[in-house]
Structures are given as structure tokens and as C-alpha cells.
Amino acid sequence: MALLLCFLFFSLIASSATACDRCVHQSKAAYFSKASALSSGACGYGSLAIGFGGGHLAAAVPSIYKDGAGCGACFQIRCKNANLCTKEGTRVIVTDLNPNNRTDFVLSSRAFRAMARKGADKDILKLGIVDVEYKRVPCEYKSQNLAVRVEESSQKSNYLAIKILYQGGQTEIVAIDVAQVGSSNWGFLTRNYGAVWNTSRVPAGALQFRFVVTAGYDGKWIWAKSVLPSDWKPGVTYDSGVQIDDIAQEGCSPCDISTWK
Questions:
Q1: What sign does the dihedral 115-134-49-107 (CA atoms) show?
Q2: CATH class of the region 25-136
Q3: Which of 49, 166, 184, 259 is within CB 3.0–4.6 Å of 39 for a Cys-Cys bond?
Q4: d(CA 115, CA 78)
Q5: What pLDDT, in 10s, does the model give residues 82-109?
Q6: What CA–CA distance (Å, rounded) separates 182 from 225?
């Protein structure tokens, strides 16, 4: 019932790449000296995160983390010190929660250095914290579909925990259903934490999933018709056969991105 209400609440219209899909925000950013601090973070990606975006990782404040829905979101961040930093900045992926509201992001040192001009990476590290502006951007995974990793805690017929990986586009997953392939008897998963979802009602046989994805004003279903084989195994990552590439609008005002294109 909850998923049905969610479905009715969100309009199933195509996301738009126009208007306010690139709102620019002002804040500060700091860095962790070790990327492992971010890979072991609240999203639950573990060591897999080190391979995301070349290690350009970020912990984000609760308003961006969104109780885990913001895990895997991509942002373009640049520092505002024109003497030290490039106009392009760097792209990061959210892998952790930053509870310190002094900064919207805490970056991996690699991502932090990547904002600097050539030869100025040591200088920017010495600052420790910098003024930044940032915007959300679509995540892009060339030749890589959305993937479902079965967590080691999963047990056939008793418990299924999955981790969502490589989500493209500019959306958030807000609900997941599961059913046996060919069946219309859907059950729902609950977000355990971060990118990890679980259920104690595991259908038998091969499994299909459907996702409700949304951000800003838009929402829609994504249906992966055959994801887990009947002999699925804990610790294995499975290709969903689909990728999310929608770009949903944000509610910024005024909608002016002229300072950063």
C-alpha cells in the first residue's frame, strides 16, 4: 500500500534537462587525508567505493545524504579561490554522511586536490577548508548498467539484502519492489541504510525488481525484468539489464546558472 501511494503521489512524466536541473549552491568543503574513511562510510559501499570516479569521493550533509537516498549522487564542485583553483573544479560521488554542518562536503584528498590549478595541489591542501560552489550533475557509467549486489547476510527464502551500484542519471531511488520472474505478486524492500535495502519475504526462483526513482519534481518506475537468477549467491553482483539516465529538475530560485555553465 505504501508503495502504491508513493506511485500515485509522483507524476509519471519524463524528466527534463531544461530549467532548474543545475542549481548552483554556495558552501565550504574540507577533505579527509585517506579515501578509506569515505569508502567505509554510511552508504555501505565499502571497498567498492574506491573505484568510483577514480576515488573522487565525498561525504555530504544530511540535506544531500537524504537518509541514504543521496548515496551515489554526483556533484561538480569548484573552489572559489581563483588564484588556486580551476574554473571546472572536480566531480565527486557521495559515499558517506557528513554530520558537520560547517561544510556541505568533506572530500577525499584526491578530489580536493583536483580542484586546484596545476602545481597548486599542495597549497590547497594546506588551507584544509575552502569556499566552494557546487551543482548536482548526472552520474554517467559508460557500458555499465545499474547493478544489484547481494549482501553476505542474505539467506535463501529467509532474508535478502541488496546494495544498489552504478546508478546513472540525476535521480534517487525511493522504493524497491521484488517478485519472482513472471509473477505479479510483488513485495517491497525497506531501506536498511545508505544504498542497502532488505526484506525477510524472499520469493522463490529468479527475481525481478522495480524501482521508483525521483528527484525534484518528477518520478517514474524503472522495471528490471530479470536480475537475480534462481541460484543467486551472497557476495555476488548482478547486472540489472537497465540503467537510469533521467535528469530531474531541482527547485532552486532564482533559476540562474549563468555563473557556471
A1: positive
A2: mainly beta
A3: 49
A4: 6
A5: 999 999 999 999 999 999 879 999 999 9
A6: 8
Query: Per the structure block, which three cell numbers stand in for 101?
Result: 554542518
Q: Are strands 57-60 and 90-97 parallel, antiparallel or unpaired?
A: parallel
Residue 215 phi, psi (nearest 5): -170, 140
CA 5/CA 1 separation, integer angstroms: 6
Q: Which three cell numbers stand for residue 11?
A: 507524476
Locate 198 and state its grid cell.
532488505
Instruction: Calculate ∠ Cα 25-174-193, nearest 5°.
Output: 90
Shortest CA distance to 84 belongs to which of 121, 31, 133? 121
Taking the C-alpha atoms of residue 68 and residue 62, their distance in angstroms, rounded to an integer, is: 9
Alpha-carbon gap, residue 218 to 16, rounded angstroms: 9
**Residue 84: all three cell numbers together:** 588556486
- Out of 3.40.109.10, 2.60.40.760, 3.10.20.740, 1.10.1040.10, the CATH code matching 146-242 is 2.60.40.760
Domain segments of the chain as ranges: 25-136, 146-242
Q: Cα–Cα distances in Å, from 49 out to 71, 93, 124, 227?
A: 11, 9, 24, 22
Q: Are strands 207-215 and 57-60 parallel, antiparallel or unpaired?
A: unpaired
Name beta bridge partners: 78: 133
CB 28 within 8 A of CB 256: no
| Strand runs labelled E in 118-203 | 129-137, 147-150, 160-165, 172-180, 187-193, 196-199
Beta-strand (E) ranges in 8-87?
25-32, 57-60, 74-79
